[in-house]
Amino acid sequence: MRLSTVPAILASVLALASPALSTPSNRATDIERRDLRQIYAAARKESGVLQVAWGGDEQSDSVAAAFESLFPEVKVNVTVDLSKYWDMKTDRAFLETGSDCVDAAFLQTMHDYPRWKSEGRLMPYKFREWEDVDPRLKDEEGYYLGAFFYNFGPIIYNENKLPAGAEIPKTYQDFLKPEWKNKLVLTYPNDDDAIAFLFSIIIEKYGWKWFSALISQNVHWVRGTATPGKILSQPSSQAAISFTTFPTGESNIKLVLPEDNYMCWPQRGAIFSSTKMPESARLFLSWVMGDDYQRNWQRNGLAGTRNGFGAQEMFQKEFVDPLAFEKFMVDRTKVEWYKLQFESQIGTAQGLSPLVDGI
Ligand SMILES: *[C@@H]1O[C@H](CO)[C@@H](O)[C@H](O)[C@H]1NC(C)=O
After folding, report:
1. Which among 47, 50, 51, 76 is the best mutation to test ligand 1's pocket, defined by most ligand atoms within 8 Å of the CB?
2. Which of 47, 76, 77 to mutate for ligand 1's pocket (most ligand atoms within 8 Å of CB)?
3. Cβ contacts of 313 within 8 Å, gap of 6 or more
4. What's 154-261+335-346's CATH class?
5. CATH topology match: 6-150+266-321 vs 154-261+335-346
6. How far is residue 147 from each of residues 106, 206, 214, 301, measured CA to CA in Å?
7. From the CB of residue 111, how many other CB atoms can be counted at a distance below 10 Å?
Protein backbone atom coordinates (compact mmCIF):
# COMPACT_ATOMS: atom_id res chain seq x y z
CA MET A 1 0.00 0.00 0.00
CA ARG A 2 1.26 3.48 -0.81
CA LEU A 3 1.79 5.46 2.36
CA SER A 4 -0.35 8.33 1.10
CA THR A 5 -3.42 6.08 1.00
CA VAL A 6 -3.29 5.47 4.76
CA PRO A 7 -4.62 8.88 5.88
CA ALA A 8 -7.30 8.62 3.18
CA ILE A 9 -8.53 5.35 4.66
CA LEU A 10 -8.57 6.79 8.16
CA ALA A 11 -10.47 9.82 6.91
CA SER A 12 -13.15 7.65 5.34
CA VAL A 13 -13.33 5.50 8.46
CA LEU A 14 -13.98 8.73 10.36
CA ALA A 15 -16.56 9.93 7.84
CA LEU A 16 -18.56 6.72 8.26
CA ALA A 17 -19.10 7.30 11.96
CA SER A 18 -22.50 8.92 12.46
CA PRO A 19 -22.42 12.48 13.84
CA ALA A 20 -24.20 11.34 17.00
CA LEU A 21 -21.46 8.83 17.65
CA SER A 22 -18.42 10.78 16.55
CA THR A 23 -18.21 12.98 19.64
CA PRO A 24 -18.10 10.91 22.78
CA SER A 25 -20.59 12.47 25.17
CA ASN A 26 -19.30 14.16 28.27
CA ARG A 27 -22.04 12.67 30.39
CA ALA A 28 -20.29 10.53 32.98
CA THR A 29 -20.87 6.81 32.64
CA ASP A 30 -22.19 5.33 35.87
CA ILE A 31 -20.27 2.55 37.51
CA GLU A 32 -21.99 -0.83 37.20
CA ARG A 33 -24.07 -1.65 40.28
CA ARG A 34 -25.06 -5.19 39.34
CA ASP A 35 -23.05 -8.26 40.28
CA LEU A 36 -22.12 -10.94 37.70
CA ARG A 37 -25.25 -12.96 38.47
CA GLN A 38 -27.51 -9.98 37.75
CA ILE A 39 -25.67 -9.05 34.54
CA TYR A 40 -25.94 -12.69 33.46
CA ALA A 41 -29.70 -12.55 33.96
CA ALA A 42 -29.87 -9.61 31.53
CA ALA A 43 -27.37 -11.15 29.08
CA ARG A 44 -29.35 -14.39 28.81
CA LYS A 45 -32.20 -12.47 27.18
CA GLU A 46 -29.96 -11.54 24.23
CA SER A 47 -29.66 -13.96 21.34
CA GLY A 48 -26.62 -14.66 19.21
CA VAL A 49 -22.98 -15.44 19.77
CA LEU A 50 -20.82 -12.77 21.41
CA GLN A 51 -17.80 -12.21 19.15
CA VAL A 52 -14.58 -11.35 20.98
CA ALA A 53 -11.27 -10.47 19.30
CA TRP A 54 -8.41 -11.72 21.46
CA GLY A 55 -4.86 -10.69 20.67
CA GLY A 56 -2.29 -13.44 20.86
CA ASP A 57 -0.15 -15.79 18.84
CA GLU A 58 -1.15 -19.16 20.19
CA GLN A 59 -4.49 -20.85 19.55
CA SER A 60 -6.47 -21.46 22.73
CA ASP A 61 -10.05 -22.26 23.72
CA SER A 62 -9.42 -21.74 27.41
CA VAL A 63 -10.89 -18.23 27.73
CA ALA A 64 -14.19 -19.15 26.06
CA ALA A 65 -14.35 -22.44 27.97
CA ALA A 66 -13.80 -20.73 31.33
CA PHE A 67 -16.46 -18.12 30.53
CA GLU A 68 -19.05 -20.61 29.27
CA SER A 69 -18.55 -22.91 32.24
CA LEU A 70 -19.83 -20.06 34.43
CA PHE A 71 -22.38 -18.59 32.02
CA PRO A 72 -23.54 -21.51 29.84
CA GLU A 73 -26.49 -19.64 28.37
CA VAL A 74 -24.35 -16.88 26.86
CA LYS A 75 -22.48 -18.15 23.83
CA VAL A 76 -19.10 -16.58 23.19
CA ASN A 77 -16.66 -16.94 20.31
CA VAL A 78 -13.19 -15.85 21.47
CA THR A 79 -10.98 -15.77 18.39
CA VAL A 80 -7.24 -15.48 18.88
CA ASP A 81 -5.22 -13.71 16.22
CA LEU A 82 -2.26 -11.35 16.15
CA SER A 83 -3.42 -7.96 17.50
CA LYS A 84 -1.91 -6.27 14.45
CA TYR A 85 -4.26 -8.29 12.23
CA TRP A 86 -7.35 -7.95 14.46
CA ASP A 87 -7.17 -4.16 14.34
CA MET A 88 -6.89 -4.25 10.54
CA LYS A 89 -9.92 -6.56 10.34
CA THR A 90 -12.09 -4.36 12.56
CA ASP A 91 -11.03 -1.21 10.66
CA ARG A 92 -11.91 -2.84 7.33
CA ALA A 93 -15.25 -4.12 8.62
CA PHE A 94 -16.09 -0.65 9.92
CA LEU A 95 -15.01 0.96 6.67
CA GLU A 96 -17.08 -1.39 4.56
CA THR A 97 -20.17 -1.97 6.73
CA GLY A 98 -20.18 0.79 9.38
CA SER A 99 -20.01 -1.90 12.05
CA ASP A 100 -17.00 -3.51 13.72
CA CYS A 101 -17.04 -7.24 13.05
CA VAL A 102 -16.71 -8.12 16.75
CA ASP A 103 -18.46 -7.02 19.96
CA ALA A 104 -15.33 -6.57 22.06
CA ALA A 105 -11.55 -6.59 21.59
CA PHE A 106 -8.64 -7.29 23.96
CA LEU A 107 -5.45 -6.39 22.08
CA GLN A 108 -1.83 -5.29 22.45
CA THR A 109 -2.25 -2.47 19.89
CA MET A 110 -2.75 0.16 22.60
CA HIS A 111 -2.72 3.03 20.10
CA ASP A 112 -5.94 1.86 18.46
CA TYR A 113 -8.17 2.48 21.47
CA PRO A 114 -7.95 6.30 21.73
CA ARG A 115 -8.47 6.45 17.95
CA TRP A 116 -11.49 4.14 18.09
CA LYS A 117 -12.88 6.28 20.92
CA SER A 118 -12.49 9.47 18.88
CA GLU A 119 -14.15 7.75 15.90
CA GLY A 120 -17.19 7.01 18.06
CA ARG A 121 -16.68 3.26 17.78
CA LEU A 122 -16.50 2.35 21.47
CA MET A 123 -19.22 1.89 24.09
CA PRO A 124 -18.26 3.24 27.50
CA TYR A 125 -18.59 0.81 30.38
CA LYS A 126 -17.37 1.00 33.94
CA PHE A 127 -17.46 -2.46 35.46
CA ARG A 128 -18.34 -2.84 39.14
CA GLU A 129 -14.81 -2.63 40.60
CA TRP A 130 -13.83 0.31 38.34
CA GLU A 131 -12.34 2.29 41.24
CA ASP A 132 -9.90 -0.56 41.90
CA VAL A 133 -8.06 0.24 38.63
CA ASP A 134 -5.32 2.88 38.73
CA PRO A 135 -6.28 5.96 36.64
CA ARG A 136 -3.06 5.51 34.62
CA LEU A 137 -4.42 2.21 33.30
CA LYS A 138 -7.90 3.28 32.15
CA ASP A 139 -9.75 5.84 30.07
CA GLU A 140 -11.41 8.09 32.64
CA GLU A 141 -14.66 8.11 30.64
CA GLY A 142 -14.78 4.32 30.58
CA TYR A 143 -14.27 3.72 26.85
CA TYR A 144 -11.35 1.31 27.31
CA LEU A 145 -9.03 0.02 29.99
CA GLY A 146 -5.96 -2.08 30.62
CA ALA A 147 -7.20 -5.55 31.62
CA PHE A 148 -4.11 -7.61 32.52
CA PHE A 149 -0.34 -7.37 32.18
CA TYR A 150 1.96 -9.16 29.81
CA ASN A 151 5.74 -8.82 29.68
CA PHE A 152 8.67 -9.80 27.50
CA GLY A 153 12.32 -9.80 28.45
CA PRO A 154 12.34 -12.34 31.30
CA ILE A 155 14.93 -15.02 30.59
CA ILE A 156 13.47 -18.44 29.85
CA TYR A 157 15.69 -21.52 29.55
CA ASN A 158 15.67 -25.29 29.46
CA GLU A 159 17.87 -26.38 32.35
CA ASN A 160 18.63 -29.70 30.65
CA LYS A 161 20.11 -28.02 27.57
CA LEU A 162 22.43 -25.42 29.10
CA PRO A 163 26.08 -25.44 27.99
CA ALA A 164 28.26 -27.07 30.68
CA GLY A 165 29.30 -24.60 33.34
CA ALA A 166 27.37 -21.71 31.78
CA GLU A 167 26.02 -18.97 33.99
CA ILE A 168 22.48 -17.76 33.20
CA PRO A 169 22.70 -14.27 31.65
CA LYS A 170 21.74 -11.37 33.91
CA THR A 171 21.80 -8.66 31.25
CA TYR A 172 21.11 -8.74 27.50
CA GLN A 173 24.80 -8.01 26.98
CA ASP A 174 25.53 -11.42 28.58
CA PHE A 175 23.79 -13.18 25.66
CA LEU A 176 26.74 -12.15 23.48
CA LYS A 177 29.12 -14.49 25.35
CA PRO A 178 30.54 -17.35 23.25
CA GLU A 179 28.70 -20.08 25.17
CA TRP A 180 25.33 -18.81 23.83
CA LYS A 181 26.28 -19.24 20.18
CA ASN A 182 23.68 -21.51 18.48
CA LYS A 183 21.69 -21.63 21.73
CA LEU A 184 19.32 -18.70 21.26
CA VAL A 185 15.77 -18.86 19.90
CA LEU A 186 14.06 -15.46 19.54
CA THR A 187 10.95 -13.95 17.98
CA TYR A 188 11.53 -11.73 14.92
CA PRO A 189 11.46 -8.21 16.39
CA ASN A 190 10.10 -6.95 13.07
CA ASP A 191 7.02 -9.19 13.37
CA ASP A 192 5.65 -8.10 16.77
CA ASP A 193 5.51 -4.58 18.21
CA ALA A 194 6.05 -5.75 21.80
CA ILE A 195 9.27 -7.52 20.80
CA ALA A 196 10.27 -4.53 18.65
CA PHE A 197 9.86 -2.33 21.73
CA LEU A 198 11.95 -4.71 23.89
CA PHE A 199 14.74 -4.65 21.30
CA SER A 200 14.53 -0.85 21.05
CA ILE A 201 15.02 -0.59 24.84
CA ILE A 202 18.07 -2.85 24.68
CA ILE A 203 19.53 -1.04 21.66
CA GLU A 204 19.00 2.37 23.28
CA LYS A 205 21.21 1.10 26.10
CA TYR A 206 23.87 -0.96 24.28
CA GLY A 207 23.78 0.47 20.75
CA TRP A 208 23.25 -1.21 17.38
CA LYS A 209 26.52 -3.06 17.84
CA TRP A 210 24.63 -5.22 20.34
CA PHE A 211 22.13 -6.21 17.64
CA SER A 212 24.87 -7.05 15.13
CA ALA A 213 26.74 -9.10 17.72
CA LEU A 214 23.51 -10.90 18.65
CA ILE A 215 22.92 -11.86 15.00
CA SER A 216 26.40 -13.36 14.83
CA GLN A 217 25.40 -15.70 17.67
CA ASN A 218 23.47 -17.57 14.94
CA VAL A 219 20.05 -16.91 16.49
CA HIS A 220 17.15 -19.13 15.51
CA TRP A 221 14.53 -16.50 14.56
CA VAL A 222 10.88 -17.56 14.73
CA ARG A 223 7.40 -16.08 14.37
CA GLY A 224 5.25 -15.81 17.50
CA THR A 225 6.14 -15.44 21.15
CA ALA A 226 4.92 -18.90 22.18
CA THR A 227 7.14 -20.56 19.55
CA PRO A 228 10.53 -20.06 21.31
CA GLY A 229 9.17 -21.74 24.46
CA LYS A 230 8.00 -24.73 22.45
CA ILE A 231 11.35 -25.01 20.66
CA LEU A 232 13.24 -24.82 23.96
CA SER A 233 11.30 -27.89 25.07
CA GLN A 234 12.22 -29.96 22.02
CA PRO A 235 15.18 -32.25 22.81
CA SER A 236 16.12 -32.32 19.09
CA SER A 237 16.74 -28.54 18.95
CA GLN A 238 20.01 -26.96 20.09
CA ALA A 239 18.12 -23.92 21.41
CA ALA A 240 18.44 -23.59 25.18
CA ILE A 241 17.47 -20.03 26.01
CA SER A 242 15.24 -17.10 24.98
CA PHE A 243 14.08 -13.72 26.22
CA THR A 244 11.06 -13.24 23.93
CA THR A 245 8.78 -15.98 25.22
CA PHE A 246 7.04 -17.33 28.31
CA PRO A 247 7.38 -20.58 30.23
CA THR A 248 5.63 -23.65 28.82
CA GLY A 249 4.69 -24.97 32.24
CA GLU A 250 7.12 -27.90 32.01
CA SER A 251 9.28 -28.32 35.10
CA ASN A 252 12.64 -28.07 33.26
CA ILE A 253 11.68 -24.73 31.64
CA LYS A 254 12.73 -21.97 34.06
CA LEU A 255 12.15 -18.23 34.21
CA VAL A 256 14.44 -15.62 35.75
CA LEU A 257 13.95 -11.85 35.64
CA PRO A 258 16.83 -9.92 34.01
CA GLU A 259 18.87 -7.35 35.88
CA ASP A 260 18.39 -5.12 32.87
CA ASN A 261 15.63 -3.00 31.30
CA TYR A 262 12.74 -5.00 29.85
CA MET A 263 9.12 -4.30 28.85
CA CYS A 264 5.60 -4.92 30.06
CA TRP A 265 2.18 -3.52 29.20
CA PRO A 266 -1.46 -3.62 30.20
CA GLN A 267 -3.37 -5.44 27.44
CA ARG A 268 -6.29 -3.20 26.52
CA GLY A 269 -9.95 -4.12 26.29
CA ALA A 270 -13.07 -2.34 25.04
CA ILE A 271 -16.61 -2.94 23.80
CA PHE A 272 -17.55 -1.73 20.31
CA SER A 273 -20.61 0.53 20.15
CA SER A 274 -21.92 -1.45 17.17
CA THR A 275 -22.55 -4.47 19.44
CA LYS A 276 -26.01 -6.00 19.26
CA MET A 277 -25.33 -7.84 22.53
CA PRO A 278 -24.39 -5.05 24.96
CA GLU A 279 -25.32 -6.94 28.14
CA SER A 280 -23.36 -10.02 27.07
CA ALA A 281 -20.40 -7.77 26.24
CA ARG A 282 -20.67 -6.12 29.68
CA LEU A 283 -20.80 -9.57 31.27
CA PHE A 284 -17.67 -10.69 29.43
CA LEU A 285 -15.72 -7.54 30.36
CA SER A 286 -16.93 -7.74 33.97
CA TRP A 287 -15.82 -11.37 34.12
CA VAL A 288 -12.33 -10.54 32.74
CA MET A 289 -12.03 -7.80 35.36
CA GLY A 290 -13.59 -9.94 38.10
CA ASP A 291 -11.70 -11.56 40.98
CA ASP A 292 -11.26 -15.02 39.45
CA TYR A 293 -9.81 -13.98 36.12
CA GLN A 294 -7.65 -11.23 37.61
CA ARG A 295 -6.22 -13.68 40.15
CA ASN A 296 -5.21 -15.95 37.25
CA TRP A 297 -2.90 -13.28 35.93
CA GLN A 298 -0.91 -13.07 39.11
CA ARG A 299 0.85 -16.29 38.17
CA ASN A 300 4.38 -16.13 36.72
CA GLY A 301 5.07 -12.80 38.37
CA LEU A 302 2.43 -11.08 36.25
CA ALA A 303 -0.61 -9.21 37.50
CA GLY A 304 -4.15 -8.16 36.83
CA THR A 305 -4.73 -4.44 36.35
CA ARG A 306 -6.82 -4.18 39.50
CA ASN A 307 -4.95 -2.98 42.57
CA GLY A 308 -6.29 -5.98 44.44
CA PHE A 309 -4.49 -8.27 42.00
CA GLY A 310 -0.97 -6.92 41.84
CA ALA A 311 -1.25 -3.81 39.64
CA GLN A 312 0.62 -1.49 42.01
CA GLU A 313 3.46 -4.02 42.31
CA MET A 314 3.94 -3.71 38.54
CA PHE A 315 4.58 0.02 39.00
CA GLN A 316 7.13 -0.66 41.72
CA LYS A 317 9.19 -3.28 39.86
CA GLU A 318 12.78 -2.49 39.02
CA PHE A 319 13.89 -2.33 35.34
CA VAL A 320 10.38 -2.00 33.85
CA ASP A 321 7.86 0.80 33.21
CA PRO A 322 4.29 -0.42 32.56
CA LEU A 323 3.35 2.85 30.81
CA ALA A 324 6.26 3.02 28.35
CA PHE A 325 4.88 0.67 25.69
CA GLU A 326 1.92 2.92 24.90
CA LYS A 327 4.28 5.86 24.26
CA PHE A 328 6.19 3.68 21.79
CA MET A 329 3.02 2.35 20.13
CA VAL A 330 1.50 5.76 19.41
CA ASP A 331 4.71 6.82 17.63
CA ARG A 332 4.13 4.78 14.47
CA THR A 333 7.02 6.50 12.67
CA LYS A 334 9.42 5.25 15.33
CA VAL A 335 7.89 1.73 15.33
CA GLU A 336 8.24 1.53 11.54
CA TRP A 337 11.83 2.79 11.71
CA TYR A 338 12.86 0.15 14.22
CA LYS A 339 11.08 -2.67 12.40
CA LEU A 340 12.73 -1.79 9.09
CA GLN A 341 16.12 -1.49 10.78
CA PHE A 342 15.66 -5.07 12.06
CA GLU A 343 14.40 -6.27 8.70
CA SER A 344 17.36 -4.73 6.89
CA GLN A 345 19.66 -7.02 8.90
CA ILE A 346 17.66 -10.22 9.47
CA GLY A 347 15.16 -10.08 6.59
CA THR A 348 11.39 -10.43 6.62
CA ALA A 349 9.80 -12.79 9.13
CA GLN A 350 9.74 -16.24 7.56
CA GLY A 351 6.99 -18.79 7.90
CA LEU A 352 3.24 -18.93 8.29
CA SER A 353 1.42 -17.09 11.05
CA PRO A 354 2.28 -18.85 14.32
CA LEU A 355 -1.46 -19.48 14.73
CA VAL A 356 -1.49 -21.53 11.55
CA ASP A 357 1.91 -23.13 11.90
CA GLY A 358 1.26 -24.74 15.29
CA ILE A 359 4.74 -26.01 16.18
C1 LIG B 1 -16.02 -17.06 15.39
O2 LIG B 1 -15.24 -15.97 14.91
C3 LIG B 1 -14.54 -16.23 13.70
C4 LIG B 1 -13.66 -15.04 13.39
O5 LIG B 1 -14.36 -13.84 13.40
C6 LIG B 1 -15.56 -16.54 12.61
O7 LIG B 1 -14.87 -16.85 11.41
C8 LIG B 1 -16.46 -17.69 13.03
O9 LIG B 1 -17.47 -17.86 12.05
C10 LIG B 1 -17.11 -17.40 14.37
N11 LIG B 1 -17.88 -18.54 14.83
C12 LIG B 1 -19.08 -18.42 15.41
C13 LIG B 1 -19.73 -19.69 15.85
O14 LIG B 1 -19.63 -17.35 15.61
Report:
1. 51
2. 77
3. 303
4. alpha beta
5. yes
6. 8, 32, 34, 16
7. 19
Amino acid at the residue 342: F
The DSSP output letter for 136 is G
E-strand ranges in 26-154 read 49-55, 75-81, 104-107, 122-123, 145-152
Interatomic CA distance for residues 63 and 50, integer angstroms: 13
Structural element, H or E, at residue 268 = strand 263-272
| Angstrom distance (rounded) from CA 194 to CA 199 | 9
Rounded-to-integer distance, Cα 264 and Cα 64, Å? 25
Q: pLDDT tens for residues 310-347?
A: 999 999 999 999 999 999 999 999 999 999 999 999 99
| CA-closest candidate to residue 269, choices 75, 120, 137 | 137
Q: In terms of residues, how long is the chain?
A: 359
Give the CATH architecture of domain 6-150+266-321.
Answer: 3-Layer(aba) Sandwich (3.40)
The answer, yes or no, to whether residue 286 has pLDDT greater than 90, is yes
The atom number, within ligand 1, closest to the CA of 102 reads 5
